[in-house]
Amino acid sequence: MARLIDQFERLPGIGPRTAQRLALHLLNQPQEQIHQFADALLAARTQVGQCQTCFHLSADPECEICRNPERRNGVICVVADSRDLLALERTREFHGRYHVLGGLISPMDGIGPELLRVTELVQRISNEEISEVILALTPSVEGDTTSLYLGRLLKPFCSVSRIAYGLPMGSELEYADEVTLSRALEGRRPV
Amino acid sequence: MARLIDQFERLPGIGPRTAQRLALHLLNQPQEQIHQFADALLAARTQVGQCQTCFHLSADPECEICRNPERRNGVICVVADSRDLLALERTREFHGRYHVLGGLISPMDGIGPELLRVTELVQRISNEEISEVILALTPSVEGDTTSLYLGRLLKPFCSVSRIAYGLPMGSELEYADEVTLSRALEGRRPV
Fold it and tell me: How far is B169 from chain A (nearest CA, A)?
């Protein structure tokens, strides 16, 4: 029991009390349910790998998005990780392909471009016919650094754009922080 | 005492308990302090009016921003109210002039452009030499409607732009709502 609680506690966002509650809940479930849980854990770990093209999570050598013939070729959206890719998919606004970098450049943490899937991205751009690369990276120092780096690197090959930073929908100017408001002013667009 | 508590309770964001605490606090202050408070209240109400040019709050016929010779002429930033103007001033990024509309177009609430200071804005644009109007309105249905209306109205006279809508600084793609993320994608800019 203590071992199970300990395992739950290692998960992000789960403290000792929640871990205990989850463990106790599972102990009250039928044997079969526990087996299914354990199986799902093992299967996920062994079967889910990375798409060999875009590096999104995938059980097959090529992920569903890369295989989908209805998605537009020629436009690649670059994201830091699969979570960001899934967030963009939820908008149903982007119909091109993706490339998962596997992180952001962060000199403070010793993460340089060589630790990310940058070479693979350049290779894709030289092999496929790419007209636009959209950088969808977080508005942070690391995101800015990575966007700047990739922008310089890729501009000779195709047009490079970056998602907009500014006021989020439904927000009030009055409560926006100054950096966001400055960026929104700076990034103004013709009506 | 009850009357004072009642007055405080009418203020936005102040409930009965806070109102009581404020009233009790004031009763413990020296007589002089209470007089200064009352004077400030009366003076604000009688002396603070609107700038005749931009309609920002001002004790004089022309506000400090309109009088300031160091601010750039030719660029007008249009805001809904003085609170939004003050938020933009805090960024120290905008050095032009302002125009306070006095609200946003809202057909649901029966607020049409004739109730806002639109005629005054058009007049300013035809009298002064204006090269750009920046619409700094909230990202909402009302803000969008007003931006669309003003965009069509003013485009024959000068270039009209709108502040950027997208991811706020320091936010995570993963937690952004879908509409904000869609707008950020749509509003992407060349790197």
Answer: 5
- Picking from A139, A166, A191, the nearest residue to B165 by CB comes out as A166
Classified as helix, coil or strand, A158 is: coil
Per-chain mean pLDDT for chain B = 93
Please name every residue paired with A79 in a beta bridge, in sequence order, or none if there are none.
Answer: A100
How many interface pairs between A and B have CB atoms less than 8 angstroms apart?
Answer: 200
Phi, psi of A133 (to 5 degrees): -110, 125
Q: What angle do CA B138, B141, B143 make, to 5 degrees?
A: 35
Whether A139 contacts A168, CB under 8 Å: no
Spatial separation of the C-alpha atoms in residues B65 and A148, rounded to whole Å? 36
Task: Supply angle C-alpha B100, B179, A175, rounded to 5.
Answer: 40
Residue B165's pLDDT is 94
ipTM score assigned to the predicted complex = 0.75
The span from the CA of A160 to the CA of A93, in Å, is 18
Show the tokens assigned to B85.
Answer: 């103007």
How close A13 gets to chain B, by Cα (Å)?
Answer: 15
B29 interface with A at CB cutoff 8 Å = no
Please give the domain boundaries of chain A with CATH numbers for all domains: 1-31 (1.10.8.420), 70-162 (3.40.1360.10)
Instruction: Provide the H-helix boundaries in chain B.
Output: 2-9, 16-27, 31-47, 64-67, 82-91, 118-127, 141-154, 178-186
Query: A162, A158, A154, A159: which is closest to A186 by C-alpha?
Result: A162
State residue A190's pLDDT score. Answer: 85
Residues in chain B with pLDDT values less than 70: none
Q: What is the pLDDT of residues A119-155, one digit of tens each?
A: 999 999 999 999 999 999 999 999 999 999 999 999 9
Q: What is the mean pLDDT of chain A?
A: 93
**What pLDDT shows up at residue A54?**
96
Query: Quick count: other Cβ atoms within 10 Å of Cβ A73?
Result: 12
Query: Is pLDDT above 90 for A1?
Result: no
Strands A189-190, A159-162: pairing is unpaired
Which residues are CB-contacts of A144 (< 8 A; sequence separation ≥ 6)? none
Using a CB–CB cutoff of 8 Å, tell me whether B70 touches chain A. no
